[in-house]
Amino acid sequence: MASSKDPWPGIARPYLLACAIFGLWPAGAEAGGLADQLAALAQEHGFSIEGLDRLSAEPGRTAEGGIKDRLKALLQGYNYILAESRPGRIERLVITGTARGGGKPPPSSTIPTLRIGAHHQVEAILVGPNGVPRTVSVLVDTGASTVVLPTSMINTLGFDAERLSAGISQTASGQVRTQTGVLPSVTVGPASAENVPVSFIADKRLNGAMLLGMSYLNRFRVTIDDEHDEIVLLAK
């Protein structure tokens, strides 16, 4: 006999376990918290997941269909990055924050990339305080918190070096000194974002690389497709 505290009396426990794994909960039911649902999906499909702490105490949601359809339903209202090794094969999910409201989202933008080792490289148009667009090649880097550029571009983009904020950043090769500011706009393909934080690091520490980090990427829902060498940006 079911306990009086059983929220779904008469429903077999194996069925409930299957629901927990596959996200098929009865209408109006909550499968624990949203973070628990996503963690279960990550375990089931073998991908890593970051940013669950951004969901706070968000209740569970109903989600059906394929894995990408279920993630889309569960993460409605959030921006995230989805890295795929091939279509349907998710390697990594990064929840970057709450989506910004207002206006109708534009169509998703599919942007071809050039592979540089394990990284994807794209062309970006940067506009600094002087208002002059500069086209540069940048590596898509979800591990970088901001757009990262060499200090030699400070004057090129029209920044006043003395007005930039000094700081320290931790990198794979150790701590580096940074100068931080805000780019009026950054555009990749048709996808543009305004007021994008940027960090400038000594040229010799970057070895010629420039990074398209999370201060730009977290404005979008991002899919990184390793098989087809492309990224898909969908603004929210």
UniProtKB/TrEMBL annotation:
Pfam families, A to Z: Asp_protease_2
InterPro entries documented for this protein: Aspartic_peptidase_AS, Clan_AA_Asp_peptidase_C, Peptidase_aspartic_dom_sf, Retropepsin-like_bacterial
Keyword terms of this UniProt record: Hydrolase, Protease
Record-linked CDD domains: retropepsin_like_bacteria
Gene3D superfamilies: Acid Proteases
Source taxon at top rank: Bacteria
Enzyme class, UniProt record, top EC level: hydrolase
Name listed for the protein in its UniProt record: TIGR02281 family clan AA aspartic protease
Protein source organism: Methylococcus geothermalis
